[in-house]
Amino acid sequence: MKRIHAALVLIFYLAGIPLAAQHSTQVIFGESFRQGATKVTEQSLEIRLDPQNTNYRERIKDLKGNDRYDFLIVAQGPEGDTKITSWQLRLRDLHHAIYDNILRATQETSSDPGNNLGWLNPDGFSPVPIRAQRIIKVDSFYVVVQVKGYHFTPVDSPYLDSMSVEVKFSNTDPRQQK
């Protein structure tokens, strides 16, 4: 009887290994079209978005302490409606205002995951899974984004009532730190 019990425990344990692997965080890396030498003051941000706090803005400083980038998170939804279906990350270089978002791999719209790392869309049809860790290299620094949680209201609707996002600005490649 003990052998049968041990065999069943082993089978359930082995069957659980693939499930555990599926729950690990997927990492998706992309590079901006911007490939300069600028580095930033490293920092981490914990951001909570909701219908009362739909947008977020933070100035990012270079290593000399000067304002260099404008980091924004902007609510997205049906045109003419106040409901939120996703959020969009943007990074603007204050010295080169011609580009509205340097987090993108190209300035042209595409469905390539590397060009959509800044789109926080939990609908299940996004080219980037919502729980994926997103690493974007811009100039000589990295922007690391991780959605920590989100909630729909009502639960079966496409409309978000909150999202928690962790954002880190780093001058070292986070993939090398693991």
Brief summary:
With 178 residues, this protein is mainly beta. Helix content is 12%, strand content 38%.
Describe it:
The protein has one domain. The protein is 12% helix and 38% strand. The protein is built from 1 helix and 9 strands. The chain has one helix at 2-22; strands at 27-31, 43-49, 56-61, 67-76, 86-93, 119-120, 133-138, 141-152, 160-170. A hairpin with a 7-residue loop joins strand 8 (141-152) and strand 9 (160-170). It is globular and about 45 Å long. 20% of the residues are buried. Residues 1-23 have low confidence and may be disordered.
Main features:
disordered N terminus, mainly beta, 9 strands, 4-stranded antiparallel sheet
Number of strands: 9
Distance between the termini: 43 Å
- Which term fits the overall shape? globular
Strand content: 35-45%
Number of helices: 1
Q: How would you spell out the order of helices and strands? A: HEEEEEEEEE
Estimate the mean pLDDT confidence. 86
Share of residues in helices: 10-25%
The count of domains is 1
Oligomer designation: single chain
Biggest sheet, spatial arrangement of strands: 1-7-8-9-2
* Unreliably modeled segments: 1-23
Largest sheet composition: 5 strands, mixed
Radius of gyration: 20 Å
Structural class: mainly beta
